[in-house]
């Protein structure tokens, strides 16, 4: 028996399967990752005025902090593309989100320019890990009429994030915070 894999039989098989739970789960996985990617690319301009005061940054330091995550993204892109294809997208996405969470927490504890810059470059590298794991997923949805809608929804999410960042920044950044953890060894913020 010879199996035929011509485009007509593939389309017929895909339409017979239908849009189901897997496709809905796929969309639910794409949306938070799109949120993360957009947030990572846009947040630096909102935190740099506060970081300038807290870390005594010069204008060059602020420019470097804005650009350094892109350096990490460019340097890690090819490596992550290879590793994602090698270890599998599911594992890469799970590990990537976990590691990104740890690095974001470490970045939030930064008290010097060099530590903050190092963590920003690591965030750039890790965000490419997640991008390589997630950006192909809208095209795994086999219905061509729905693919365009999925792309529209991810763009809409990016727009919501870009509007939500200044709204949340206007609320959180003016707050006076006084936190000391572990006797000031790990974290001491006085404003």
From TrEMBL:
Keyword vocabulary terms for this entry: Membrane, Transmembrane, Transmembrane helix, Transport
Lineage: Eukaryota, Metazoa, Ecdysozoa, Arthropoda, Hexapoda
Membrane topology per record: Multi-pass membrane protein
Keyword Membrane: yes
Protein name: Major facilitator superfamily (MFS) profile domain-containing protein
PANTHER family: EG:BACR7A4.13 PROTEIN-RELATED (PTHR23511:SF36), SYNAPTIC VESICLE GLYCOPROTEIN 2 (PTHR23511)
InterPro entries referenced in this protein's UniProt entry, alphabetically: MFS_dom (IPR020846), MFS_trans_sf (IPR036259)
PROSITE patterns noted in UniProt: MFS
Residue stretches making up the Major facilitator superfamily (MFS) profile domain: 26-191
Membrane-crossing segments per the record: 24-47, 67-85, 92-115, 121-141, 153-173
Record bears the keyword Transmembrane: yes
UniProt subcellular location: Membrane
């Amino acid at each position: 028996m010879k199996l035929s894999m011509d485009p007509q039989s593939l389309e017929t098989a895909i339409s017979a399967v239908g849009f189901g739970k897997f496709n809905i789960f796929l969309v639910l996985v794409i949306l938070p990752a799109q949120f993360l990617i957009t947030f990572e690319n846009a947040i630096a301009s909102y935190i740099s005025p506060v970081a300038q005061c807290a870390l005594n940054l010069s204008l060059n330091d602020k420019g470097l902090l804005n650009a350094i995550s892109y350096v990490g993204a460019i340097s890690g892109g090819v490596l992550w593309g290879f590793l994602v294809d090698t270890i599998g997208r599911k594992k890469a996405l799970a590990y990537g989100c976990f590691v990104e969470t740890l690095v974001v927490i470490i970045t939030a504890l930064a008290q010097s320019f060099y530590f903050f810059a190092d963590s920003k470059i690591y965030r750039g590298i890790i965000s490419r890990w997640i991008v390589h794991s997630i950006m192909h997923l809208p095209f795994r949805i086999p219905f061509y009429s729905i693919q365009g809608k999925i792309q529209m929804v991810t763009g809409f999410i990016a727009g919501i994030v870009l509007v939500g960042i200044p709204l949340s920044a206007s609320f959180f950044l003016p707050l006076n915070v006084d936190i000391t953890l572990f006797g000031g060894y790990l974290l001491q913020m006085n404003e």
